[in-house]
TrEMBL record:
<dbReference type="GO" id="GO:0006429">
    <property type="term" value="P:leucyl-tRNA aminoacylation"/>
</dbReference>
<dbReference type="InterPro" id="IPR009080">
    <property type="entry name" value="tRNAsynth_Ia_anticodon-bd"/>
</dbReference>
<keyword id="KW-0436">Ligase</keyword>
<keyword id="KW-0648">Protein biosynthesis</keyword>
<dbReference type="GO" id="GO:0005739">
    <property type="term" value="C:mitochondrion"/>
</dbReference>
<dbReference type="GO" id="GO:0005829">
    <property type="term" value="C:cytosol"/>
</dbReference>
<dbReference type="InterPro" id="IPR001412">
    <property type="entry name" value="aa-tRNA-synth_I_CS"/>
</dbReference>
<dbReference type="GO" id="GO:0005524">
    <property type="term" value="F:ATP binding"/>
</dbReference>
<dbReference type="InterPro" id="IPR014729">
    <property type="entry name" value="Rossmann-like_a/b/a_fold"/>
</dbReference>
<dbReference type="GO" id="GO:0004823">
    <property type="term" value="F:leucine-tRNA ligase activity"/>
</dbReference>
<dbReference type="GO" id="GO:0002161">
    <property type="term" value="F:aminoacyl-tRNA deacylase activity"/>
</dbReference>
<protein>
    <recommendedName>
        <fullName>leucine--tRNA ligase</fullName>
        <ecNumber>6.1.1.4</ecNumber>
    </recommendedName>
</protein>
<keyword id="KW-0030">Aminoacyl-tRNA synthetase</keyword>
<dbReference type="InterPro" id="IPR002302">
    <property type="entry name" value="Leu-tRNA-ligase"/>
</dbReference>
<dbReference type="Pfam" id="PF08264">
    <property type="entry name" value="Anticodon_1"/>
</dbReference>
<feature type="domain" description="Methionyl/Valyl/Leucyl/Isoleucyl-tRNA synthetase anticodon-binding">
    <location>
        <begin position="717"/>
        <end position="825"/>
    </location>
</feature>
<dbReference type="Pfam" id="PF00133">
    <property type="entry name" value="tRNA-synt_1"/>
</dbReference>
Length: 868
């Protein structure tokens, strides 16, 4: 006994849309005089498990925006090389279709198709030609068990995120992309984007621009003479140079071996080996205790001429700055901690403005007035200057005396662009067998197709699995005809997703990555909806490629995504837990908290046994027992994953779509609730019954008359236009939930009307259509239309009807005020009485009664006297 026959209408309209290509986006026939709107969802990572209800949220948002703007849709799905079978793609596609997405399926793209990755490889060649793709020996996270290099994010506490295998740092030949060449532009152009401030800030921190100086320190012989070796340090605080009481080099510092005394060499070796097993993250964690080893050598502080010890310590990273620092314990907390531990002097050289130096027992990292910093022998006196002035002065002195120079640094590293995996786009270069020279393929040799390989497990040696495809690997250089070997590293999974938004504009172009006219029309993406987990890498990589494409004239805008919205995640249904002691008695959560007993058992309580009491949840049958209520991220292991297929089977796709938009503000995290979806489902059922009528036992519907020629009353127009105004405003502000509430209020009001003029009902159906498109199409055709409502403009509010001139009129029955009704000031007695009869509260008194007398004072009161 279903509230409305969604299982019939949903497949029916999905077929209709597909057959009629309702959502086709113009292609060669785009009318460039028409405004465009390009909304995109970050394509999800389809695993074999298919979608869960959190995945389509971003898509729903987009569809609401799109149908609202009445623009064409661009297909936003894509698939990933990580997919191992086409079956996954099919499953994914059919799930999307069963949700009734208004996609132009002609634009489906798949990053694993050669037609697509041809252009990914083409971009690589352009990068290579411009010196933006290069090879280097770099220390990488090597996981011997998995036989592959891992990205920093894939390493947690020194072991692989998947499987927990040990990971070590080791230098390997890698392909790198020079994203650092774009650091300044990536930073500056953030200012013009409508992105969440938090995401911009994360990108700024990731790029991490810092201004400072490189200073040179001479290494000293054991008898104090200057040697030919120099250590260059990077510092953001040249003003503290007189306070540098030791130097630190990173364990992977290239010159380290020439800095170690014989006596210390064994210690240093062991230390370096130990450090190679830690990740950068672990090494730089502030809370971790600092460790290090003295190298046995000294360097000369160029400012005061003192000999200071050189240490090796892993809190200094080889990959940042110069891999060496001047340590100033008085003014850097890491150095302070280290100096205390190893008994190194602390020299105070910056006085805080409140002169509170030395008493705090910790470093003073702030800026202030310089003290203890003068050496007339080298012509440097910065005493009394502010930190800022002193820094400038020191840099000027260093540049003149040859002791250093100004330097801007970035945290941003070049992008490690190679993976030892089989799945991935082949890198389009060969290595000449005789000379070892790397030669890029010719553009007309693209796509370089990934060879079929039955066994693509890692080789375990660091040789990528592709090296097993011997007949593919052995080749000749097309230009010179010399024997050559193909590159067997593949591109990382990021590559294909870096530019897919461009391909949607022109998905089948075989001559170009994207046609210029189409790109100029569609670009940039107006709204990009996606999870905050992509705040840094994906968005940064895509911006980098986009800027390169801009520089070579492929795209016309500097930035790919004008606006980014992070949708909140959908958590699983709230789980209620109670505690039970050994005797089987339930214990209130607050008691369990303090009793801190370990032999309490936690048991799950089904929702129907729970009720709300104030801010907490308690057992219905025993409200003294307070429960723990928590929602968790959906995960297989918790068993709280809600599968959209099941929801659709039970409530229909429209309910799922409407519900996800109704759950709460787009950007917040939300909790899945079955009773919530039931509420939305009931609303759709009521909408259906209002317009179509109630179901009869023979499966037909008791027709309800929608009055074709009926003129709407002023009250009806007001109700409608207020609803339109609210829905529109909330869509524009992406607060879909409150817009939906307005539609629910409209429906309540409409149920009180006698007559339902068609014009009013039609407008309402259009309002509903972005959220519940199947039902809306069906109602639309029942209202007598033969064409899809997809091409109808969204209703517009008429401001004339938005002003409120209704008043609250008290209603007395037999001399007692029993309630109120909302009426127009000018409302007639008949209308007022009619409203009172339909009012939920008042009708209880009036139903079935005969009225003796009515006294009506317009704007003041309605008095009804009943026969007794
Ligand atoms: C002396 C000094 C004195 C420093 C002082 C700080 C405070 P950002 O802003 O992150 O660029 N540093 C330089 N290279 C490093 C590396 N490879 N690993 C770890 N730390 C490194 O910070 C730059 C500061 O971090 C530099 O300035 C250096 O310590 C340290 F009162 O030099 B400073």
């Amino acid at each position: 006994n279903r509230a409305y026959p969604f299982h019939e209408i949903e497949p029916k309209w999905q077929r209709y849309w597909e057959q009629n290509r309702t959502f086709r986006t113009p292609d060669d026939d785009i009318d460039t005089s028409k405004p465009k709107y390009y909304v995109l969802d970050m394509f999800p990572y389809p695993s074999g498990a298919g979608l869960h209800v959190g995945h389509p949220l971003g898509f729903f948002v987009i569809l609401v925006l799109l149908s609202f703007l009445c623009c064409c849709c661009v297909l936003q799905t894509g698939t990933h090389p990580k997919l191992t079978t086409a079956r996954n793609i099919d499953r994914f596609r059919s799930q999307l279709k069963s949700l009734g997405f208004s996609y132009d399926w002609d634009r489906e793209i798949s990053t694993i198709e050669p037609d697509y990755y041809k252009w990914t490889q083409w971009i690589f060649l352009q990068l290579y030609k411009r010196g933006l793709a290069y090879q280097a020996e770099v220390p990488v996270n090597w996981c011997p068990a998995l036989g592959t290099v891992l990205a920093n994010e894939e390493v947690v506490d020194g072991v692989s995120e998947r499987g927990g295998h040990p990971v070590i740092r080791k230098p390997m030949r890698q392909w790198m992309l020079k994203i650092t060449a774009y650091a300044d532009r990536l930073l500056e152009d953030l200012d013009g984007l409508d992105w969440p401030e938090s995401v911009k800030e994360m990108q700024r921190n990731w790029i991490g621009r810092s201004e400072g100086a490189e200073m040179e320190f001479c290494v000293l012989d054991s008898d104090g003479k200057e040697r030919d070796v120099k250590i260059i340090v990077y510092t953001t605080r040249p003003d503290t140079i007189f306070g540098a009481t030791y130097l630190v080099v990173a364990p992977e510092y290239p010159l380290l071996s020439s800095l170690v005394s014989t006596a210390q060499s064994k210690h240093v070796e062991d230390y370096v080996e130990l450090a190679s097993r830690k990740s950068d993250l672990e090494r730089t964690e502030l809370q971790k205790e600092k460790t290090g080893v003295f190298t046995g050598c000294y360097a000369k502080n160029p400012a005061n001429g003192e000999a200071i010890p050189i240490w090796v310590a892993d809190y200094v990273l080889g990959s940042y700055g110069t891999g060496a620092i001047m340590a100033v314990p008085a003014h850097d907390s890491r150095d302070y901690e280290f100096a205390l531990k190893y008994d190194i002097p602390v020299n105070w050289v910056v006085m805080p403005n409140d002169k509170s130096i030395n008493e705090s027992g910790k470093a003073f990292p702030g800026e202030g007035v310089i003290i203890n910093s003068s050496n007339l022998f080298v012509g440097l006196d910065i005493n009394g200057l502010s930190s800022k002035e002193a820094a400038l002065e020191v840099i000027e002195w260093a540049e003149k005396s040859g002791n250093g120079k100004r330097k801007v640094n970035y945290k941003l590293r070049d992008w490690l662009f190679a993976r030892q995996r089989y799945w991935g786009e082949p890198i389009p270069v060969v290595i000449l067998d005789d000379s070892g020279e790397t030669v890029p393929l010719n553009e007309n040799e693209l796509p370089l197709i990934l060879p079929e390989l039955d066994n693509f497990s890692p080789t375990g040696t660091g040789e990528p699995p592709l090296s097993k495809a011997v007949s593919w690997v052995k080749t000749t250089d097309s230009l010179s005809g010399r024997p050559a070997t193909r590159e067997t590293n593949t591109m990382p999974q990021w590559a294909g997703s870096c530019w897919y938004y461009l391909r949607f504009m022109d998905p089948t172009n075989s001559k170009e990555l994207v046609d210029k006219t189409k790109e100029r029309y569609w670009g940039p993406v107006d709204v990009y909806v996606g999870g905050a987990e992509h705040a840094v890498l994906h968005l940064l990589y895509a911006r980098f490629w986009h800027k390169v494409l801009y520089d070579i004239g492929v795209v016309s805008t500097k930035e790919p995504f004008q606006c980014v919205i992070n949708q909140g995640i959908i958590l699983g249904e709230v789980q209620y837990m109670a505690y039970r002691d050994q005797d089987g008695n339930l214990i209130s959560a607050d008691v369990a908290d303090i009793s801190n007993e370990h032999n309490l058992e936690k048991i799950q309580i089904p929702e129907e046994k729970v009720m709300k009491s104030g801010d907490s949840f308690v057992l219905k049958e025993n409200p003294d027992i307070r429960l723990v209520a928590r929602a968790y991220k959906m995960s297989k292991s918790r068993g709280n994953v809600v599968n959209p297929d099941d929801v659709i089977a039970e409530y229909g796709a429209d309910s799922l779509r409407l519900y996800e938009m109704f759950m709460g503000p787009l950007r917040d995290s939300k909790t899945w609730s079955t009773s919530g979806i039931e509420g939305v489902y009931r609303f759709l059922g009521r909408t259906w019954r209002l317009i179509v009528g109630s179901p009869l036992s023979d499966g037909t519907f008791k027709e309800r008359t929608i009055s074709v020629d009926e003129e709407p009353t002023i009250d009806q127009l007001r109700t409608l236009h207020k609803c339109i105004a609210k829905v529109t405003e909330e869509i524009e502000g992406t607060r879909f939930n409150t817009g939906i509430s307005a539609m629910m209020e409209f429906l309540n009001a409409a149920y009180k009307w006698d007559k339902h003029p068609r014009s009013i009902i039609e407008a309402f159906v259009l309002l509903l259509s972005p959220y519940a498109p199947h039902m809306a199409e069906d109602l639309w055709s029942r209202l007598g239309h033969t064409k899809s409502l997809a091409y109808e403009p969204f209703p517009e509010e008429n401001p004339a009807y938005l002003k409120d001139s209704t008043i609250v009129l008290p209603v007395q029955i037999n001399g007692k005020t029993r309630g109120t009704i909302q009426v127009e000031e000018t409302c007639s007695e008949e209308e007022a009485f009619g409203l009172a009869c339909r009012d939920e509260k008042l009708s209880k008194y009036l139903d079935g009664q005969s009225v003796r007398k009515r006294i009506y004072v317009p704007g003041k009161i309605l008095n009804v006297v009943l026969d007794r």
